Amino acid sequence: MNYRHAYHAGNFADVVKHATVALILGHLKSKDKPFCVLDTHAGTGRYDLLAEAAGKTGEWRNGIGRLWGRPGLPPELAPYLAAIRRLNRAGAGHLRWYPGSPRLARILMRPGDRLIATELHPVEAQALQREFAGDAQVQVRRMDGYQALKAFLPPPERRGLVLVDPPFEASDEFERLVKGLGEAHRRWAQGIFALWYPIKGEGPVRALHEAVVATGVRRVVAADFLIRPAVDATRLNGCGLLLINPPWTLADDLKRLLSRFADALADPGPGSARVEQLVGE
After folding, report:
1. Which of 156, 132, 154, 152 has its CA nearest to residue 144?
2. End-to-end alpha-carbon separation of the chain, Å?
3. Most distant CA pair in the chain, distance
4. Cα angle vertex 20, ends 14, 21, to 5°?
5. Which of 34, 52, 192, 216 has its CA 20 to 30 A from that of 156?
6. Catalytic residue numbers?
7. In what helix (H) or strand (E) does residue 206 lie, and over which residues does it extend?
8. At what angle do helices 122-131 and 101-108 cross, to 10 degrees?
9. φ/ψ (deg, to 5) at 214
10. Cβ–Cβ < 8 Å for 55, 6
């Protein structure tokens, strides 16, 4: 429980994850009925890109830094970038604050929608509570994210998104991810689930996909993005998202979006992207 996302906020993996979350929330908002977002590993909510932690790694410069102010970006990025601009509007358009997934979700929510954000790290959890203090639409709990799947599903709204984005400090995190998905899906088979994972080598990713298929969960799409070939398993070469019950146009949206990221975010290249349906209806 030592992972601190402040060192990595706004990097290429955040861009992929948060742009996808913004697209999903856009689909949910296409209907009038309220929805719930459960963010199981929520972090602090927002990150200062001018602070010491972000400055030590500079990872954001090769992530959101490459997109900020860049012309000709695809329309699929518009909701994500609009949320970041809203968070930075007091700074005359300068990029300083980066929204973590709970703050991103909160910006994009409507009155009547609801956010549950859980975080286990004590310092991160305190910061998260300060971030949303007094916000009646947000419930913050310090607790294990996998326990949150049991505690809060299904939500009374019966519509929404579950984002599972663990720090992958534990050696068995992939196994915990698959087990958590299976249990959560049994509780709420109609929910939209987005499970983030790192890509260092191809073998663990194939094993993860096979394990998810073996659960019997239906309607599973995998979206993988690489900033470089995954030949050095000691480096973060890419990231992926397992999407369960994705909105019907999301796969096509991600194909277009990730193909553009392969040019904009590759380090230095060649980047690559793959969106495939692992399990159908």
Report:
1. 152
2. 37
3. 50
4. 90
5. 216
6. 165
7. helix 202-214
8. 20
9. -70, -20
10. no
Residues 6+ apart with CB under 8 A from 2: 169
Q: Which amino acid is at 58?
A: G
198 φ/ψ angles, rounded to the nearest 5 degrees: -80, 155
Q: Which of 161, 175, 226, 220 is nearest to 198 (CA)?
A: 226
> Taking the domain 5-279, which CATH number applies?
3.40.50.150
Task: For residues 237 and 172, give the distance between their C-alpha atoms in angstroms, rounded to a whole number.
Answer: 20
Reference 27, options 132, 115, 108, 138; nearest CA is 108
Q: State the residue for tokens 């991600």.
A: 254
- Residue that is written with structure tokens 């505690």 in the block: 151
Residue-level pLDDT, tens digit, the chain, 281 residues: 567 889 999 999 999 999 999 999 999 999 999 999 999 999 999 999 999 999 999 999 999 999 998 999 999 999 999 999 999 986 666 899 999 999 999 999 999 999 999 999 999 999 999 999 999 999 999 999 999 999 999 999 999 999 999 999 889 999 999 999 999 999 999 999 999 999 999 999 999 999 999 999 999 999 999 999 998 999 999 999 999 999 999 999 999 999 999 889 987 777 899 999 999 98
